[in-house]
Amino acid sequence: MRSIDLDVRIIAATNKDLSKVVADGEFREDLYYRLQVIPLRLPSLRERKEDIPVLLEHFLVRFNRLLGKRFRGFSPEALELLNGYPWPGNIRELQNSVEYACNMETEEIVSTASLPPRIRQSQYQTDNSISVGVRLRQKMKEVEHQVLAEALEYFGTSSQDKEKVAKVLGVSRATMYRKLKEHNLV
């Protein structure tokens, strides 16, 4: 038996704060440092709404090719609805929604009627004052997420660092941890 030298690169992804998981003894420290070469943080789709039109176009071209169809685009109403939707399932949900619409639509322009029911019936439509309030609350959540993420980046992610962030933001430690959990920053 002889050994063979290998040059391997590993790409790993998680939605957990590995430094916290290591500190809690739930993840091997040596493995953490092997994986922590070039950390990348990919924001959720709701944090980068400007990508939605580009992704819609990409998926439309893709499903035109796969389904043998010739869609030219989305109606202005459909675009407004798709841009206003919060996309809790991120890009995968957006892709599935475009595929659904391409399978349902019979015209050259994808209309709101062809969008998945959860999007058509979402509370994020811009037709009334209730939806305006919902959009404002969503915007506040986005700003809160950004502030928390920047604070963690500045102060760090250890328990003591999070306590500093809570003090600077004027909230209790419990509120801080609740907010971090809400925003998947734990």
TrEMBL record:
The domain of life is Bacteria
Which PROSITE patterns does its entry note? SIGMA54_INTERACT_3, SIGMA54_INTERACT_4
Specify the protein name: RNA polymerase sigma factor 54 interaction domain protein
Species assigned in the record? Acididesulfobacillus acetoxydans
Annotated Sigma-54 factor interaction domain residues: 1-103
InterPro entries assigned to the protein according to its UniProt record, in alphabetical order: AAA_lid_NorR, Homeodomain-like_sf, HTH_Fis, P-loop_NTPase, Sigma_54_int, Sigma_54_int_dom_CS
One Pfam family matching this protein: AAA_lid_14
What GO biological process term is on the record, naming one? regulation of DNA-templated transcription
The cross-references to PANTHER family, in alphabetical order and at most eight, read: TRANSCRIPTIONAL REGULATORY PROTEIN
Keywords, A to Z, come to: ATP-binding, Nucleotide-binding, Transcription, Transcription regulation
**Molecular function via GO:** ATP binding; sequence-specific DNA binding
